[in-house]
Amino acid sequence: MPVVNNIQALTHALDLAMEKHQNIVIYGEDVGFEGGVFRATIGLQAKYGEERCFDAPIAEATLVGTAVGMAINGMKPIVEMQFEGFSYPAFQQLFTHVARLRNRSRGRFTCPLIVRMPMGGGIRALEHHSEAVEAMFAHNPGLKVVIPSTPYDTKGLLLAAVESSDPVIFLEPTKIYRAFKQEIPDEYYTLPIGEGYKIQEGDDLTIVTYGAQVSECEKALAQLKEEGFPINVDLIDLRTIQPWDREIVIESVKKTGRILVVHEAVRSFSVASEVITTVNEKCFEYLKAPAGRVTGYDIIIPFDRGEHYHQPSVQKIVVKIKELVNYQF
After folding, report:
1. CATH number at residue 18
2. Cys-Cys link to 99, which of 21, 142, 250, 322 (CB 3.0-4.6 A)?
3. Are 37 and 82 a contacting pair, CB within 8 Å?
4. Active-site residue, 12 included
5. Do residues 203 and 170 share a domain?
């Protein structure tokens, strides 16, 4: 089995998808000859030709609008935007057409396109290159929103998006594009969209996270172990935030009585807000401490040198874990 990073897992998945499905086309800004700004589509134009993998203008609304036309006519367009913060001009297409087409046509039409976008900070870029606005997409019924955290998940979830008859927003944390490698199956496989994954089992605390913050939470737990801090944690990777796996979270919190949600997006009106509200509605009588969250601040992400102050860190997570575990009513 190949040992790959997240970028290589993306390339491998796209290659297998194009080989299996002749109706797939991939296009976006610099995705053809250059292979994309992060080289996720490297070699695909040479292998499959300019009609199936090609460059497009810097016009995000046009990218998505043309994908709508392709999708309702039997093609499977996979659009790449250079960064999540570049997607704002495409909101009109995404929210008024892509998300609504199945409902608007009472199921006669579907819009099975994929929009891939690098998301989040960690590379010290400028504001539109480092934003995490996944909650905006999740707020619109009709869109599936996927955020993988490992090469194995990246490949399996992207191929699941390929097989989906609904539109999928596929967000790729730039911080972990090349941060680590993992052995993955060589063959075509899918992972279920909408199911979380429990990375480790514990009885003291539930941590819910996704994307790049999964590895930060793992580092925080490793630090606590080195310190000798006695804690056993249910660590849950949501993988998908729309739909999100309520059952795995509710079951865990009923066992542990404590929850911490970690993500890099802003604090207010966020995924953390939704998860914690659900826990309060379904598990309130089980809670041993108020729900906690470690997130970005309610500000525009700072320029490069201030970026790490804005994002969750191992130390912030460690402090919050200790606070929740030591809390007494």
Report:
1. 3.40.50.970
2. 142
3. yes
4. no
5. no
